[in-house]
Design goal:
By secondary structure, the protein is mainly alpha-helical. It is built from 18 helices and no strands. It is globular, with a radius of gyration of 20 Å.
């Protein structure tokens, strides 16, 4: 897909001809609807478990701070880092078998995590959970991106509108999931994990019956040969690094944020509400933000603005941290961080996904979609372990937040410039 082919997505439409997002959902084909609802179900099961993992590892398992950070980074790396494998397999064998295999592994991983009580067992279950997503997520995301391009070229509207609906579905799941997890956590963390596994049992059954064996227009290609050209694509690799800075920042919802909430209130009960705030913002504001950005910003400027907002979120906590506020007042900087991070995410995520088809080689969209997550997953693995170490060194509490603020700002310079 060339740059010139993408230009209609950035051309403002007259007010009377702009398709509303409600009508857009009604005009989507059944496959796109299924894939978007798939993202909703994936995130309900996932976010019922993950937000409470750090506290479980630190208290019930007794892991040190650096080890908790490493495990969380390992989970992200085994997921994001291996997306390139799942994307290549989707290009070779099709979407359906890869998605079904990933669901089976996610069920096994959640069940194992519920019974894991030693470091090696936790690491094994976390790796399995991550690799499961490395199979099904790039398959689903690449097909949504491909269908979004078809939607745009058929006159349906900017491809970012479809990708924004995909993001909204994911965040709706991220809103419901932590609330379910918080309720079940009163019983036991094992119950939380088994419930997450149960959600994926339902997803597996639904996709076994509804996902087509072959999707029209998606031709299968050999695995060999694609990676070499990808590694020579400097513009694409630059986009991957900038996206990795965003993902590292987003991962702090599970590392830095729980620590800040615990410090301010003495517990993590407010964590579910902050996750809910983030998801609610995306569900209610993602589509208007995407429409506003499509009318005024190209993909590079949209990502740059989002990364700057994310950096500002970390800076808010860094500035307020020396005051040592507690109670409800102490939650205000954390809430500001969540809001700015979420608004930044609304700009970054759809733009990055919309950019990949323009930079990918024909027939290799799964590989390129997976590779973007793989590179960013490696960044998260290194960055999360470093962040956990900073938290254990006894440096001023604002230092990790300042360090994380600098990374997205620096990554803006990495964004590829349009020809």
């Amino acid at each position: 897909m060339t740059q010139s082919q993408r230009q209609p997505a950035e051309t403002p439409q007259p007010e009377a001809t702009r398709p509303s997002h409600r009508r857009a959902w009604g005009r989507l084909n059944p496959l796109l609807r299924l894939l978007i609802l798939t993202q909703l179900a994936f995130n309900i099961g996932f976010f019922a478990v993950l937000p409470f993992l750090a506290e479980h590892l630190g208290t019930a398992i007794g892991m040190a701070g650096w080890m908790v950070g490493f495990v969380l980074g390992l989970r992200t790396f085994s997921q994001q880092g291996l997306f390139v494998v799942g994307g290549a397999l989707a290009d070779r064998y099709g979407v359906r078998p890869v998605v079904l295999a990933g669901c089976v592994l996610r069920i096994a991983g959640f069940a194992w995590l519920g019974y894991a009580d030693e470091d090696w067992s936790v690491i094994g279950s976390v790796l399995l959970i991550g690799f499961a997503a490395a199979l099904f997520s790039p398959a689903v995301e690449s097909e949504v991106a491909r269908q979004a391009v078809v939607w745009e070229e058929s006159g349906g509207g900017p491809r970012t509108s479809v990708l924004a609906l995909f993001t909204v579905a994911g965040q709706a799941g991220a809103f419901v999931g932590p609330l379910i997890g918080a309720l079940l956590l009163a019983v036991d963390y094992r119950v939380v994990c088994l419930t997450g596994a149960g959600v994926f049992v339902l997803v597996l059954a639904g996709h076994f019956w509804l996902l087509p064996q072959h999707i029209p227009g998606r031709e299968r290609v050999e695995v060999r040969g694609g990676l070499r050209g990808l590694l020579r694509n400097r513009r694409f690799l630059a986009l991957c690094c900038a996206y990795g800075a965003y993902l590292l920042a987003y991962n702090q919802l599970y590392l830095l944020l729980p620590d800040e909430v615990e410090r301010a209130t003495g517990s993590q009960s407010a964590l579910a509400w902050l996750f809910g705030l983030s998801s609610l913002l995306v569900v209610t504001a993602q589509l208007p933000v995407t429409r506003w950005a499509a009318d005024r910003l190209d993909l590079r400027r949209s990502m740059a603005a989002g990364l700057a907002l994310i950096a500002a979120g970390f800076a808010v906590v860094a500035v307020a941290r020396p005051a040592e506020w507690t109670g409800n007042r102490g939650l205000l900087p954390a809430a500001g961080f969540v809001v700015l991070l979420t608004v930044g995410q609304m700009l970054v995520a759809p733009a990055a996904r919309a950019w990949v088809p323009d930079l990918a080689v024909e027939g290799r969209l799964g590989l390129y979609t997976g590779a973007m997550s793989s590179v960013s997953g490696l960044i998260v693995l290194v960055g999360s372990a470093a962040t956990g170490s900073l938290m254990d060194t006894g440096l001023p509490a604002a230092v990790p937040w300042l360090a994380l603020a600098a990374i997205p700002m620096a990554s803006i310079a990495l964004l590829p410039r349009r020809v």
